[in-house]
Protein backbone atom coordinates (compact mmCIF):
# COMPACT_ATOMS: atom_id res chain seq x y z
CA UNK A 1 0.00 0.00 0.00
CA UNK A 2 1.44 3.38 -1.00
CA UNK A 3 1.43 6.22 1.57
CA UNK A 4 -1.08 8.12 -0.59
CA UNK A 5 -3.48 5.16 -0.64
CA UNK A 6 -3.07 4.71 3.13
CA UNK A 7 -3.83 8.39 3.86
CA UNK A 8 -6.81 8.37 1.46
CA UNK A 9 -8.08 5.20 3.12
CA UNK A 10 -7.90 6.86 6.55
CA UNK A 11 -9.63 10.05 5.37
CA UNK A 12 -12.40 8.05 3.68
CA UNK A 13 -12.75 6.02 6.89
CA UNK A 14 -13.38 9.32 8.68
CA UNK A 15 -15.99 10.30 6.09
CA UNK A 16 -17.69 6.93 6.47
CA UNK A 17 -17.77 7.29 10.27
CA UNK A 18 -19.29 10.79 9.96
CA UNK A 19 -21.96 9.47 7.55
CA UNK A 20 -22.74 6.67 10.03
CA UNK A 21 -23.08 9.19 12.88
CA UNK A 22 -25.36 11.42 10.81
CA UNK A 23 -27.52 8.57 9.48
CA UNK A 24 -27.80 6.95 12.91
CA UNK A 25 -28.99 10.25 14.36
CA UNK A 26 -31.44 10.87 11.50
CA UNK A 27 -32.95 7.35 11.60
CA UNK A 28 -33.16 7.23 15.42
CA UNK A 29 -34.83 10.68 15.55
CA UNK A 30 -37.49 9.64 13.03
CA UNK A 31 -38.22 6.11 14.23
CA UNK A 32 -38.18 6.66 18.02
CA UNK A 33 -38.23 2.90 18.55
CA UNK A 34 -36.58 1.04 21.46
CA UNK A 35 -34.72 -1.21 18.99
CA UNK A 36 -31.38 -0.13 17.41
CA UNK A 37 -32.58 -0.28 13.79
CA UNK A 38 -30.14 2.40 12.62
CA UNK A 39 -26.99 0.29 13.18
CA UNK A 40 -28.64 -2.65 11.37
CA UNK A 41 -29.53 -0.44 8.39
CA UNK A 42 -25.96 0.93 8.31
CA UNK A 43 -24.27 -2.47 8.60
CA UNK A 44 -26.50 -4.28 6.11
CA UNK A 45 -26.30 -1.48 3.49
CA UNK A 46 -22.51 -1.23 3.96
CA UNK A 47 -22.10 -4.99 3.62
CA UNK A 48 -24.11 -4.97 0.37
CA UNK A 49 -21.99 -2.10 -0.98
CA UNK A 50 -18.75 -3.92 -0.03
CA UNK A 51 -20.02 -7.06 -1.79
CA UNK A 52 -20.63 -5.03 -4.95
CA UNK A 53 -17.25 -3.29 -4.71
CA UNK A 54 -15.14 -6.37 -4.03
CA UNK A 55 -17.08 -8.34 -6.63
CA UNK A 56 -16.17 -5.59 -9.09
CA UNK A 57 -12.54 -5.69 -7.90
CA UNK A 58 -12.44 -9.48 -8.36
CA UNK A 59 -13.58 -8.95 -11.95
CA UNK A 60 -10.87 -6.27 -12.39
CA UNK A 61 -13.58 -3.61 -12.88
CA UNK A 62 -12.03 -1.43 -10.18
CA UNK A 63 -8.39 -1.17 -9.13
CA UNK A 64 -6.91 -2.52 -5.91
CA UNK A 65 -6.31 1.05 -4.68
CA UNK A 66 -9.97 1.97 -5.13
CA UNK A 67 -11.00 -1.24 -3.37
CA UNK A 68 -8.74 -0.32 -0.42
CA UNK A 69 -9.80 3.34 -0.22
CA UNK A 70 -13.55 2.82 -0.69
CA UNK A 71 -13.86 -0.70 0.76
CA UNK A 72 -11.43 -0.83 3.68
CA UNK A 73 -11.60 2.94 4.20
CA UNK A 74 -15.04 4.38 3.55
CA UNK A 75 -17.21 1.28 4.05
CA UNK A 76 -15.03 0.03 6.91
CA UNK A 77 -15.49 3.35 8.70
CA UNK A 78 -19.19 3.49 7.81
CA UNK A 79 -20.04 0.05 9.21
CA UNK A 80 -19.26 -0.85 12.79
CA UNK A 81 -19.02 -3.98 14.86
CA UNK A 82 -18.38 -2.40 18.27
CA UNK A 83 -21.64 -0.40 18.40
CA UNK A 84 -23.63 -3.46 17.28
CA UNK A 85 -22.05 -5.48 20.10
CA UNK A 86 -22.71 -2.77 22.72
CA UNK A 87 -26.34 -2.45 21.59
CA UNK A 88 -26.84 -6.22 21.86
CA UNK A 89 -25.43 -6.16 25.41
CA UNK A 90 -27.68 -3.21 26.35
CA UNK A 91 -30.79 -5.05 25.12
CA UNK A 92 -29.90 -8.08 27.24
CA UNK A 93 -29.12 -5.82 30.24
CA UNK A 94 -32.73 -4.56 29.94
CA UNK A 95 -33.88 -8.19 30.08
CA UNK A 96 -34.83 -8.07 26.38
CA UNK A 97 -33.09 -11.33 25.48
CA UNK A 98 -35.06 -11.99 22.29
CA UNK A 99 -34.39 -8.47 21.00
CA UNK A 100 -30.70 -8.98 21.86
CA UNK A 101 -30.60 -12.29 20.00
CA UNK A 102 -32.36 -10.78 16.98
CA UNK A 103 -29.94 -7.84 17.01
CA UNK A 104 -26.90 -10.14 17.22
CA UNK A 105 -27.86 -13.02 14.93
CA UNK A 106 -30.43 -11.27 12.71
CA UNK A 107 -27.99 -8.54 11.72
CA UNK A 108 -25.31 -11.18 11.03
CA UNK A 109 -27.58 -13.20 8.71
CA UNK A 110 -28.88 -10.12 6.85
CA UNK A 111 -25.41 -8.57 6.45
CA UNK A 112 -23.83 -11.81 5.18
CA UNK A 113 -26.74 -12.30 2.74
CA UNK A 114 -26.42 -8.68 1.57
CA UNK A 115 -22.64 -9.05 1.03
CA UNK A 116 -23.15 -12.32 -0.87
CA UNK A 117 -25.89 -10.72 -3.00
CA UNK A 118 -23.69 -7.73 -3.86
CA UNK A 119 -20.83 -10.03 -4.84
CA UNK A 120 -23.14 -12.29 -6.92
CA UNK A 121 -24.67 -9.32 -8.76
CA UNK A 122 -21.19 -8.14 -9.77
CA UNK A 123 -20.13 -11.58 -11.00
CA UNK A 124 -23.13 -11.53 -13.37
CA UNK A 125 -21.53 -8.64 -15.26
CA UNK B 1 -32.40 27.72 15.09
CA UNK B 2 -29.29 28.24 17.18
CA UNK B 3 -26.67 25.59 16.37
CA UNK B 4 -26.38 24.49 20.03
CA UNK B 5 -30.06 23.46 20.00
CA UNK B 6 -29.58 21.15 17.07
CA UNK B 7 -29.15 17.43 17.78
CA UNK B 8 -25.42 16.41 17.84
CA UNK B 9 -25.55 14.65 14.45
CA UNK B 10 -26.50 17.95 12.80
CA UNK B 11 -23.66 19.98 14.31
CA UNK B 12 -20.51 20.40 12.23
CA UNK B 13 -18.11 20.32 15.18
CA UNK B 14 -19.43 16.90 16.26
CA UNK B 15 -19.37 15.55 12.69
CA UNK B 16 -15.73 16.67 12.43
CA UNK B 17 -14.89 15.01 15.77
CA UNK B 18 -16.41 11.71 14.62
CA UNK B 19 -14.62 11.96 11.26
CA UNK B 20 -11.26 12.60 12.99
CA UNK B 21 -11.70 9.63 15.33
CA UNK B 22 -12.96 7.49 12.45
CA UNK B 23 -9.93 8.33 10.29
CA UNK B 24 -7.51 7.29 13.06
CA UNK B 25 -9.52 4.15 13.81
CA UNK B 26 -9.63 3.17 10.12
CA UNK B 27 -5.88 3.76 9.77
CA UNK B 28 -5.23 1.55 12.82
CA UNK B 29 -7.48 -1.19 11.37
CA UNK B 30 -5.69 -1.04 8.01
CA UNK B 31 -2.29 -1.19 9.74
CA UNK B 32 -3.33 -4.29 11.70
CA UNK B 33 -4.66 -5.90 8.50
CA UNK B 34 -1.26 -5.28 6.85
CA UNK B 35 0.60 -6.77 9.82
CA UNK B 36 -1.35 -10.05 9.68
CA UNK B 37 -0.31 -12.71 7.16
CA UNK B 38 -2.92 -13.76 4.58
CA UNK B 39 -4.54 -16.97 5.79
CA UNK B 40 -7.85 -18.75 5.19
CA UNK B 41 -9.07 -17.56 8.56
CA UNK B 42 -9.69 -13.77 8.77
CA UNK B 43 -7.72 -13.26 12.00
CA UNK B 44 -7.07 -9.53 11.45
CA UNK B 45 -10.79 -8.63 11.29
CA UNK B 46 -11.55 -10.86 14.27
CA UNK B 47 -8.79 -9.12 16.26
CA UNK B 48 -9.93 -5.54 15.54
CA UNK B 49 -13.59 -6.37 16.13
CA UNK B 50 -12.97 -8.06 19.49
CA UNK B 51 -10.55 -5.34 20.68
CA UNK B 52 -13.03 -2.66 19.58
CA UNK B 53 -16.02 -4.38 21.21
CA UNK B 54 -14.06 -4.45 24.48
CA UNK B 55 -12.79 -0.89 24.13
CA UNK B 56 -16.18 0.63 23.35
CA UNK B 57 -17.68 -1.20 26.34
CA UNK B 58 -14.99 0.28 28.63
CA UNK B 59 -15.37 3.80 27.24
CA UNK B 60 -19.17 4.06 27.20
CA UNK B 61 -19.63 2.47 30.63
CA UNK B 62 -16.97 4.67 32.28
CA UNK B 63 -18.31 7.84 30.63
CA UNK B 64 -21.94 7.15 31.58
CA UNK B 65 -20.89 6.52 35.21
CA UNK B 66 -18.85 9.71 35.40
CA UNK B 67 -21.88 11.82 34.45
CA UNK B 68 -24.21 13.25 31.80
CA UNK B 69 -23.31 13.16 28.13
CA UNK B 70 -22.06 16.73 27.73
CA UNK B 71 -18.88 18.81 27.54
CA UNK B 72 -15.66 16.79 27.58
CA UNK B 73 -17.52 13.52 28.10
CA UNK B 74 -19.52 14.04 24.91
CA UNK B 75 -16.33 14.94 23.00
CA UNK B 76 -14.68 11.73 24.25
CA UNK B 77 -17.74 9.62 23.42
CA UNK B 78 -18.03 10.97 19.88
CA UNK B 79 -14.32 11.12 18.97
CA UNK B 80 -13.30 7.95 20.84
CA UNK B 81 -16.46 5.84 20.71
CA UNK B 82 -18.48 6.69 17.59
CA UNK B 83 -15.35 7.82 15.71
CA UNK B 84 -12.33 5.76 16.75
CA UNK B 85 -13.85 2.44 17.87
CA UNK B 86 -16.62 2.71 15.26
CA UNK B 87 -14.02 3.20 12.52
CA UNK B 88 -11.58 0.68 14.02
CA UNK B 89 -14.15 -2.11 13.92
CA UNK B 90 -15.95 -3.14 10.75
CA UNK B 91 -19.08 -5.06 9.93
CA UNK B 92 -18.89 -4.96 6.12
CA UNK B 93 -15.52 -6.76 5.90
CA UNK B 94 -16.69 -9.26 8.54
CA UNK B 95 -19.89 -9.97 6.56
CA UNK B 96 -18.14 -10.28 3.19
CA UNK B 97 -15.40 -12.53 4.60
CA UNK B 98 -18.10 -14.79 6.04
CA UNK B 99 -19.99 -14.84 2.72
CA UNK B 100 -16.79 -15.70 0.82
CA UNK B 101 -15.87 -18.42 3.34
CA UNK B 102 -19.24 -20.14 2.76
CA UNK B 103 -18.02 -21.08 -0.73
CA UNK B 104 -14.86 -22.80 0.55
CA UNK B 105 -15.96 -24.16 3.91
CA UNK B 106 -19.38 -23.74 5.51
CA UNK B 107 -18.00 -24.95 8.84
CA UNK B 108 -15.26 -22.30 8.98
CA UNK B 109 -17.73 -19.63 7.82
CA UNK B 110 -20.28 -20.40 10.54
CA UNK B 111 -17.51 -20.82 13.11
CA UNK B 112 -15.93 -17.47 12.21
CA UNK B 113 -19.29 -15.63 12.21
CA UNK B 114 -20.56 -17.04 15.50
CA UNK B 115 -17.15 -16.72 17.17
CA UNK B 116 -17.04 -13.02 16.24
CA UNK B 117 -20.58 -12.23 17.46
CA UNK B 118 -20.52 -14.37 20.64
CA UNK B 119 -16.98 -13.51 21.80
CA UNK B 120 -17.77 -9.91 20.77
CA UNK B 121 -20.64 -9.83 23.27
CA UNK B 122 -18.39 -11.40 25.95
CA UNK B 123 -15.68 -8.80 25.17
CA UNK B 124 -18.22 -5.97 25.50
CA UNK B 125 -19.48 -7.32 28.85
CA UNK B 126 -15.87 -7.54 30.10
CA UNK B 127 -15.37 -3.97 28.85
CA UNK B 128 -18.45 -2.77 30.74
CA UNK B 129 -17.11 -4.41 33.93
CA UNK B 130 -13.69 -2.81 33.37
CA UNK B 131 -15.31 0.58 32.69
CA UNK B 132 -17.29 0.35 35.92
CA UNK B 133 -14.06 -0.58 37.73
CA UNK B 134 -12.23 2.47 36.36
CA UNK B 135 -15.04 4.71 37.60
CA UNK B 136 -15.04 3.05 41.04
CA UNK B 137 -11.28 3.41 41.48
CA UNK B 138 -11.27 7.03 40.27
CA UNK B 139 -14.13 7.98 42.60
CA UNK B 140 -12.45 6.30 45.59
CA UNK B 141 -9.18 8.09 44.90
CA UNK B 142 -11.07 11.35 44.44
CA UNK B 143 -13.02 10.80 47.67
CA UNK B 144 -9.99 10.16 49.90
CA UNK B 145 -7.68 12.75 48.35
Q: Average pLDDT of chain B, to the nearest integer?
A: 93
Q: Tell me the quaternary state.
A: heterodimer
**What is the number of helices of chain A?**
5
Distance between the termini of chain B: 44 Å
Q: So what's the overall shape of chain A?
A: globular
Q: Identify the overall geometry of chain B.
A: globular
The structure class of chain A reads mainly alpha
Q: Largest sheet of chain B, described in full?
A: none
What fraction strand of chain B? under 5%
Detail the poorly predicted runs of chain B: none
Q: Tell me the number of strands of chain A.
A: 0
> Beta-strand level of the residues of chain A, as a percent range?
under 5%
Helix content of chain A: over 70%
Total number of helices of chain B: 5
Radius of gyration of chain B equals 18 Å
Between the first and last Cα atoms of chain A, what is the distance in angstroms?
28 Å
Q: Helicity of chain B, in percent?
A: over 70%
Q: Tell me the structural class of chain B.
A: mainly alpha
Order of helices and strands of chain A: HHHHH
Which sheet architecture does the biggest sheet of chain A show?
Answer: none
Our Rg estimate of chain A from Cα atoms comes to 16 Å
Key terms:
heterodimer, A: 125 residues, mainly alpha, 5 helices, 0% strand, B: 145 residues
How would you summarize what this structure contains?
The complex is a heterodimer of chains A (125) and B (145). By secondary structure, chain A is mainly alpha-helical.
Would you give an account of this structure?
The complex is a heterodimer of chains A (about 120) and B (about 140). Chain A has helices at about 5-30, 35-60, 65-80, 80-95, 95-125. In chain A, α2 (about 35-60) packs parallel to α5 (about 95-125) and α4 (about 80-95) packs antiparallel against α5. The two termini of chain A are about 30 Å apart. The relative contact order of chain A is 0.18. With about 120 residues, chain A is an all-alpha fold. The mean pLDDT of chain A is about 95. Chain B has about 140 residues and is mainly alpha-helical. Chain B has helices at about 10-35, 45-65, 70-90, 90-105, 105-145. The model of chain B has no long low-confidence stretch (mean pLDDT about 95). Classes of the chains: A mainly alpha (about 120), B mainly alpha (about 140). The interface between A and B is large, with 57 and 56 residues. Chain A: Fluoride-specific ion channel. Important for reducing fluoride concentration in the cell, thus reducing its toxicity.
Amino acid sequence: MTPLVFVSLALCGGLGAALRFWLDGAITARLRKPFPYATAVINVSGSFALGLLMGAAAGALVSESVALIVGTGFLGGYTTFSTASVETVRLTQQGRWLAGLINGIGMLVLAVAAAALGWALMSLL
Amino acid sequence: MNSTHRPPHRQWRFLVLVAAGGAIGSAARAAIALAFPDTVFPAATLTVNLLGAFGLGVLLEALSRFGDDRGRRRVLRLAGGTGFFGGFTTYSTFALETARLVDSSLGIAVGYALMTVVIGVVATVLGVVAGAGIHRRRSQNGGTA
